[in-house]
Each structure stands twice: as structure tokens, then as C-alpha cells.
Amino acid sequence: MKSRPNIILILADDMGYSDLGCFGSEIDTPNIDSLANNGLRFSQMYNSARCCPSRAALLTGLNPQQTGVGHMVTDMGLPAYQGYLNKNCATIAEVLKKNGYTTLMSGKWHVGGSYNLLDKDTWHPGDNR
């Protein structure tokens, strides 16, 4: 069986294109530079300038409004602005998992879900996507 590549996808808020050493920064970022030099780097990208819609687009490959996260995670009463990922889109993790990958998400989610952050018993992955 052909081996599958390992995939590490990093989204960093409030970071500019040239803030990493691998893209010419004067700031020393050796570990990220090593990942970049031994992997795939994207050099042409667009975002919606807000963290939630940008994250929704990156996770699904769709425009933010197609995912239901056209603004932030507040329901604005319209399908494109419902504040959480709708059932018509799949995340990259869901697609990879169906194809035999083990997946992990760590960090900010900010693409939906209604739960009390202080009560871990309310954390149900997949609820309200």
C-alpha cells in the first residue's frame, strides 16, 4: 500500500505573509521554517479579513457564506450568516477521516457550536458543527 503523506495545517491569527523566516522575515522562526522547507508552502492566498469566516473557508475550501459563517459566530438570521458550519459542507478533517486518516484539531474552533466553555461536559464535537 502506498504511504500517505502526513498533513499539518496551521492557521495563525494576526500574522502577516512576511512574518515568518521562510517568507523573508528578519524574525527567527526555525521550526516553522523547517516545516515549510520540507513541505508545501502556499504563496497566493486570500481571506475574508475576519478570523471566523477565514477559518471556515480554510477548513472547507468554500467561500465563508457558503459555509454559514459569513461573519462571526452570531446567528444573523440568514443561512449565509447563521454563525456555524452548515450541513452542506464538509471539513478537510471529515474528508481525510473518511479516507483513513487520523485527525486532530487543536486551538480555536470559532466556526460554531453552542456550549459553555467552562463546562467540559457540554463539549460535544460535531454539535452544531
From TrEMBL:
Protein's name in the database: Sulfatase N-terminal domain-containing protein
Family membership: Belongs to the sulfatase family.
Keywords: Calcium, Hydrolase, Metal-binding
Pfam families from the UniProt entry: Sulfatase (PF00884)
Entry GO MF terms: arylsulfatase activity; metal ion binding
Ranges of residues in domain Sulfatase N-terminal: 5-113
Organism: marine metagenome
